[in-house]
């Protein structure tokens, strides 16, 4: 068996790398970045927990979501006197010119999110990480005044 060319080795190495959603093209095994990490649950501070979650998920950020994918992010609505989750965990169901709609796992119902009220990037959540994130009390329910 002959030696592999440089191009063949590059293609092999690229196939071993993970895609943006934590899948390895070679094995199709999804990686859970949450399990085994000690999210600071001792403080009961949703801000501290969200900062740690964002750090763990920082390798997969995006400005625009895809329908059918899961995300967490920081959000502050523009609508006055509305109760909202500042740290939503959502499954995106629709995308519009004004923003997107998704099932918020903390609320257990669909919510709308507008582009201008996103306070940064969307952090991609692998499906295998959902249960672990739902077990962390990082939701921050607030009233927009």
User: How are strands sequenced across the largest beta sheet?
Assistant: 1-7-2-4-5-6
Listing every helix as H and every strand as E from the N terminus to the C terminus, the arrangement reads: HHEEEEEEEHE
Q: What is the global morphology?
A: globular
Largest sheet: 6 strands, antiparallel
What is the tally of beta strands?
A: 8
Which band does the percent of strand residues land in?
15-25%
User: End-to-end distance, in Å?
Assistant: 71 Å
Overall pLDDT level:
85
Return the domain count.
Answer: 1
Number of helices: 3
Report what the structure shows:
This protein has 145 residues and is of the alpha+beta class. It has one domain. The chain is 19% helix and 23% strand. It contains 3 helices and 8 strands, in the order ααβββββββαβ. The protein has helices spanning 6-16, 46-56, 130-134; strands at residues 61-62, 70-72, 83-85, 89-95, 99-104, 109-114, 122-125, 141-143. The strands form 2 sheets. The protein has a 6-stranded antiparallel beta sheet. A hairpin with a 3-residue loop joins strand 4 and strand 5 (99-104). The longest helix has 11 residues, at 6-16. The radius of gyration is 18 Å and the shape is globular. 19% of the residues are buried. Mean pLDDT is 85; it is low at 23-27.
């Amino acid at each position: 068996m002959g030696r592999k060319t440089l191009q063949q080795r590059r293609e092999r190495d690229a196939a071993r790398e993970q895609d943006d959603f934590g899948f390895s093209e070679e094995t199709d095994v999804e990686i859970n970045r949450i399990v085994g990490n000690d999210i600071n649950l001792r403080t009961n501070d949703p801000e501290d927990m969200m900062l740690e979650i964002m750090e763990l998920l920082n390798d997969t950020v995006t400005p625009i979501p895809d329908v059918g994918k899961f995300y967490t992010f920081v959000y502050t609505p523009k609508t006055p006197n509305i109760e909202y989750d500042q740290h939503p965990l959502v499954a995106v169901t629709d995308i519009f010119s004004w923003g997107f709609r998704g099932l918020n796992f903390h609320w257990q119902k669909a919510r709308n999110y507008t582009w201008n009220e996103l306070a940064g990037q969307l952090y991609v959540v692998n499906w295998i990480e959902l249960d672990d994130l739902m077990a962390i009390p990082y939701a921050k329910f607030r009233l927009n005044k």
